[in-house]
Recover the amino acids of this structure.
């Protein structure tokens, strides 16, 4: 188990809930768009939000943004150490630095500020910015050594409020690196596949990479990197946590449909899934297409529906308790879920 680290009002590591992270994709200087995106992310289930910091002027928005969301705010810093200090002075809860492009002669100033403002630091290395002095090593060796050296320098300065990450656009390299970090450090790990591409590809790449690590018990906070709306990152992250039984909220199952199905199962499944994915209460919901797998899958669900010819059976804790006409089934089943969630 990793050590516990405080980020704003949230604790990660130490057996705490795995935190979902995303990143805004609009300039921090655009206060209104940044605010709206952060609110949407929090409503979708995001636990930590990160944003790029490119100038000191935009850091003035940090304090005002904290009035609209309760998520910890993380400043992504590259090249200019003074931006990290400015972000901390304006109320950010964590900063992310990359040893591959961070000025080493400014490290002590940043650490002193982090101590003063009780700010956590994520050391995040990735394949896009490997230190030139390590270019003679393999990809994985260079990233690991870069991070290890940075950790040691920061620990020498008496700072330990750290989160670590090593990412690659290669799923296999990302998994290998995260396992290496887990073996060598007890700091919380932030995991994810970077530069994973658009939604269709990126969701799969991250599911394989993040999912493999979560099954191994590795990972304290996750970010699904997508070339897409950041809210999609949160939705995919929640699904990965559900698939690995690490999440909270609803678990949804539906059958793949076969020739025995007499109804529009895709419509039922998509409609119910789009409703339950927003729920925060733990509940397992099943939508099945026929009498073969229906009763069995519904038996393991809190609530389930199994389609027949013109009729739909509703299950609760494995027992049929209602049979309704197919024309009313969807509306009635969603109401059953609402009632269950309200109990």
């Amino acid at each position: 188990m990793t050590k516990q680290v405080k980020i704003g009002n949230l604790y990660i590591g130490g057996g705490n809930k795995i935190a979902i992270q995303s990143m805004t994709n609009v300039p921090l200087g655009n206060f209104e768009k940044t605010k709206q995106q952060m609110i949407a992310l929090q409503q979708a289930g995001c636990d930590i939000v990160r944003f790029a910091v490119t100038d000191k002027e935009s850091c003035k928005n940090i304090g005002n943004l904290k009035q609209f969301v309760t998520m910890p705010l993380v400043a992504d810093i590259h090249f200019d150490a003074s931006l990290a200090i400015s972000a901390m002075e304006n109320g950010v809860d964590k900063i992310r630095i990359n040893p591959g492009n961070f000025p080493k002669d400014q490290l002590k100033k940043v650490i002193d500020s982090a101590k003063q403002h009780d700010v956590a630091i994520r050391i995040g290395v990735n394949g896009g910015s490997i230190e030139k002095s390590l270019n003679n090593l393999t990809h994985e060796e260079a990233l690991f050594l870069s991070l290890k050296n940075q950790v040691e320098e920061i620990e020498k300065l008496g700072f330990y409020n750290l989160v670590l990450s090593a990412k690659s656009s290669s799923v296999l390299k990302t998994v290998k690196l995260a396992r290496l970090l887990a073996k060598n450090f007890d700091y919380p790990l932030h995991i994810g596949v970077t530069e994973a591409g658009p939604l269709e590809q990126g969701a799969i790449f991250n599911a394989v990479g993040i999912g493999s690590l979560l099954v191994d018990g590795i990972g304290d906070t996750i970010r699904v990197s997508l070339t897409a709306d950041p809210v999609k990152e949160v939705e995919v992250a929640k699904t990965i946590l559900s698939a690995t039984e690490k999440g909270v909220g609803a678990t949804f199952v539906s059958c793949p449909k076969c020739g025995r199905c007499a109804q529009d199962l895709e419509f039922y499944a998509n409609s119910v899934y789009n409703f339950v994915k927003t729920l925060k209460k733990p509940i397992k919901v099943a939508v099945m297409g026929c009498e073969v797998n229906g009763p069995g899958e519904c038996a393991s669900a809190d609530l389930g529906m199994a389609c027949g010819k013109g009729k739909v059976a509703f299950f609760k804790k494995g027992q049929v308790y209602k049979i309704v006409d197919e024309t009313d089934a969807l509306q009635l089943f969603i109401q059953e879920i609402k009632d269950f969630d309200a109990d």
Notes: The mean pLDDT is 91.
